[in-house]
């Protein structure tokens, strides 16, 4: 284990839950990065770039720490779907995803602040959504759950009822590929088990 602390560069409850679940003690320090300044068309460049930028921004404020950061996007038909702007945008996204498959990319960045040793990577999962009727989409939007989620759904919440199957990691869709994180942390002398 490193001598310093572990910092999660995120305010995401999902990422906090996953770190808690695998037993990593951490402090949450959300990045204040303006994500609108990142307009890559390539989903891998986007999620890796955002994850690393968030981790780097937080690293500037802490010493002797290991920073963990992630960023998740949904890609449908080569179009990147971020968080919905409003209810109408959420409706359009869910209508698009209905009865189709899409990809979820999560970028992962880890930075050790004392020597700037770092890791940048990503994981991808394919998600198959069942057919969703308009009334069901409207009811789901009215729960408020889709409003801060990439692609307008939360696989770990009520949105999970729309997911028929996935090929890849459930946790990547949730926002933190813990299988990948555990392997990466070994390079930083942190063993989960």
List the helices and strands and how they pair.
Blueprint: E1 5-8, H1 13-21, E2 27-28, H2 43-59, E3 65-76, E4 79-81, H3 87-97, E5 101-112, E6 117-129, H4 134-142, E7 163-167, H5 170-174, H6 178-186
Parallel strand pairs: 1-2, 1-3
Antiparallel strand pairs: 3-4, 3-5, 5-6, 6-7
Helix pairs in contact: 3-4
Helix/strand-derived category reads alpha/beta
- SS element count, helices: 6
CATH topology descriptor: Maf protein
Helix content: 25-40%
Concise account of the structure shown:
The chain is an alpha/beta fold and 193 residues long. The chain has helices spanning 13-21, 43-59, 87-97, 134-142, 170-174, 178-186, and strands at 5-8, 27-28, 65-76, 79-81, 101-112, 117-129, 163-167. It contains 6 helices and 7 strands.
């Amino acid at each position: 284990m490193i001598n310093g602390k572990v910092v999660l560069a995120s305010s995401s409850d999902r990422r906090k839950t996953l770190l808690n679940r695998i037993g990593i003690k951490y402090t949450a320090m959300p990045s204040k990065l303006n994500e609108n300044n990142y307009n890559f068309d390539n989903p891998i460049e986007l999620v890796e770039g955002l994850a690393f930028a968030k981790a780097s921004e937080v690293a500037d404020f802490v010493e002797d720490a290991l920073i963990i950061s992630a960023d998740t996007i949904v890609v449908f038909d080569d179009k990147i779907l971020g968080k919905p702007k409003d209810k109408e945008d959420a409706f359009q996204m869910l209508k698009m995803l209905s009865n189709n498959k899409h990809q979820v990319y999560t970028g992962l960045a880890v930075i050790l602040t004392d020597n700037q040793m770092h890791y940048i990577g990503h994981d991808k999962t394919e998600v198959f959504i069942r057919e969703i009727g308009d009334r069901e989409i409207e009811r789901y939007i009215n729960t408020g759950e889709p409003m801060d989620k990439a692609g307008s759904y939360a696989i770990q919440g009520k949105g999970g009822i729309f997911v028929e199957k996935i090929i890849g990691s459930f946790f990547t869709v949730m926002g933190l590929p813990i299988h990948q994180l555990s392997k990466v942390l070994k390079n930083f002398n942190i063993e989960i088990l």
